[in-house]
Every structure is written in C-alpha cells, then in structure tokens.
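Protocol step 4 of 5: obtain the predicted structure for the target chain.
Materials: sequence only (see below). No template structures provided, no constraints applied. The aim of this step is simply to have a reference model before the mutagenesis design in step 5. Sequence pasted as it appears in the construct record:
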Amino acid sequence: MFKNLIAGEWREGPRVIRNINPSDTRDLVGEYAQADAAQAREAVAAAQQAFPAWSQSTPQQRFDILDAAGSEILARKAELGDLLAREEGKTLPEAIGEVGRAGAIFKFFAGEALRIGGDVIPSVRPGVGVEVTREALGIVGLITPWNFPIAIPAWKLAPALAYGNTVVLKPAELVPGSAWALADILQRAGLPPGVFNLVMGPGSQVGQVLLEDQRVAAISFTGSAATGGRVAAACAARLARFQLEMGGKNPMVVLDDADLGVAVNAALNSGFFSTGQRCTASSRLIVTNGIHDQFVAALAERMQALKVDDARKAGTDIGPVVDESQLAQDMEYIAIGEQEGARRIGGERIATNSAGAPGHYLRPALFTETTADMRINRDEIFGPVVSVMRAKDYEEALHLANDTPFGLSAGIATTSLKHATHFKRHSQAGMVMVNLPTAGVDYHVPFGGRKGSSYGPREQGRYAAEFYTTVKTAYTAA
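Step 4 output (structure tokens):
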C-alpha cells in the first residue's frame, strides 16, 4: 500500500482506494491510503512547524533540492511515464512528455530560487533608503486535477518551494500514483520533514480542511468551475489568497486563407489528443464559409483514422477516457448534440481494446452544422468531442470565438498577418495561438486565462512569484 507523507513520515490512512487502469479495468495499479480531516490537520501542523526554518533557508539549499528532484524525474522519464499512462490513460508518448515537462519545471524553479530579486530605491525624503523584497507566504494548499497528474502538481509545487513556502498537496483521487511518486522523489531529494506533505483523500475532508484552516495562507486550485467557486468563497471568507484555474471552451478560428494541412493538424491535436481531456483543448472550431466543407471533410477523414486503444500500446493515438463517470458525461453530451440537431461523425463507445480488455473507450466525435446557442458549444465537455460552427467572415468568427463565459486559450489558422495580429489583440483569452494547437504551452512562460477560466496571478514562469510571495517595503534612515 502507498501511504501519505506527513511530517516526513509515511502514514497509513483510515481507508484505502484502488487505483484502476482505464485501459484495462481488470488491472490494479495499486492501493493508496486515504487521509481524513484529522490527518489533513496534522499535515497543516507539520507544514506550520517547518515554515520558519524553510522560509529562511538559503537559495542554494532550495536550488540543490529542486534540481536533484528535477534530475531524478528526467532520469526516470520512461518509468514514470508508463505509470502515468497506466493510471490516467493518456498515450505513452504524451505521458512521457508530461513527465519531462515536470522535470524541466523543477529545474527551472531551482534556478528561480537563486534569482529572487528585489529593489533598492532612493526615498523622496533625504537620508532615507528603501528596500523592496519578496518573502514567502507561509503554508500553501495545493489542490490538483486528474488530467495532468504530474505536470500540474509540479508547476504548483516547484515555485511554492522555491520561494520558501511549505506545502500540503491534495491530488485528485483518480490519479494518486503520479503524486505519490513525486512525493517520494522530493523526500529523497532532501526536503526537511514537514516542508512538503502529501495527503491523498476526498475533497470533502482533506480539501475542506485546506480551505477552512486559518493556518493555510493560500490555495492554488485547478479543477472545475463549480468547485473553483466554492474554493473562492471559502478563501474570501477568511481573507486567504487563492488562485484558480477552471477550464475552458476554447475556440479555433479557421479562415478561408488558412493552409488546410496546418489547420487540420492543429484542430486534430487540440481537439482529440489526450482524449480531449485538456482545459486548453479546442472544442469549438469556427470555420469561414469558403473553406468550411473542405476543412470538415479533411478533419473527419483524419479523425476517423485515429487509433483508439490501450494507452501504453505502440501506435495508439487516443487512449481511454479516465473513468466510467467521465465517459458517461461524454456520452450524455453526444446525445445532447444529436437532440439539438447537430450532425454527428464518430462518437461511438468501444467496449474493449484490441487485446479484448475492458476499458473506458470512446471514438472521437465531431459535430457539424452547430450553432452558438447549443449546449455542446456552451458547456465544457472535457472529452474527445468537438463541434464546428460556420462563420461568414473574420468579424463573425471573432465574435463567435469570444461568445463564451470562458477565456483560457484561443487559436486561429490563417496566412493573413492582418487577421493574425488583430486576433491576438482582440481575442478574449489568456493565451492565443496562431497556426498552432490551442493545447501545449511552454513551462517558462505564464499560463492562465480570463473570464470564467482563471482567477488570480498567472501560473508558471517568473510570473509565479506574484502568487507565491508577498512584497515587503522597508525604510532605513541613514
């Protein structure tokens, strides 16, 4: 059994969950301890005790630990990628790529620990000096989702530790294996006891403690919009800092002048890879009339040729949906799309993989002849389900792209510098891609959106300091 990490010790919990492989539901990945509210409070206490020393540790100490963790993650990329693919269901190449990203994130923030800057500024008053510095917040609670089970914990954990905070991590219950492996690596990299605590367990107990405990200075959350709203309310009630990443309904505009191959490749990658289970996935394709029919035909042909199979099997393009509940939601929205009058291509459930093993398999679905008011164009489905809307020209396409309560990522396929430049400026999204998939971002630059997608300072890159530190201004008389 894999245990929780509290105050530097591996601890059993009051119950255990079974981590099941969605590619083969007969395959048990492992049994993982589940913490309760009492253990979550113990983890917070451990983080509180460790904070004074860790926040005053040297940049070199923090660099050495984060760099060692990053090195081990990268050295074990194939092994950890296999675990990730096995428990979450993204294809093995995608899983290995995610692990590599996690390792690079730790390496990047190891360097940032050495680059925590400040300012020395002359005062407007004679004989007075001013120093502006950044300091750690305190205890940070991290609540992470199942779709990127090592990269998202990494991009929250690494900056939190680099800037001198102590951490309590609650990973998604569906994917405890990758988080446990990360905890094991950090423990062996030399983190002092209590600096990092792993409490695997239900949000109703572990998550609630993190939200309500006055000792927790900040919460970084990635998940659904509904849960994000509850996180915001709980943190605001006690004036704790919070950061929310809550999904998207991302558009990709395809104009008449687009390179057809580039546009189809970008849409295929954005909409269907990782089984569509990415908050940056393009689930709305907005295509102008002149290229619409040609684009839909080419995309449908490429989509139907994608191989849906075991995530770890060579040649698989799309792995399984993460679990039965998510699959049921995908199927419900496919039925809704048909009821709303859209034309469906694909979208059939598959009972077994090519080896005959039962799993949560779904052929990718493409809806055409859709309108902006349809639920399949309003709600985040979070599966390999993509819809196409017609637009008469660029202006209408831009309007449709922005007609959403979300604003995470947006893309455009065009050879027009004029339209690309205008779209980058006027798209109501935190990230804009030109002739690229909307999914897939670098680890050293800011990540985040607008409107209902995000709240608070950006994640990743040097911008992470805005959330994980507080600014102090000190005056000294000469």
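Step 4 remarks: The longest strand covers residues 128-136. The chain has 14 helices and 24 strands.
Proceed to step 5.
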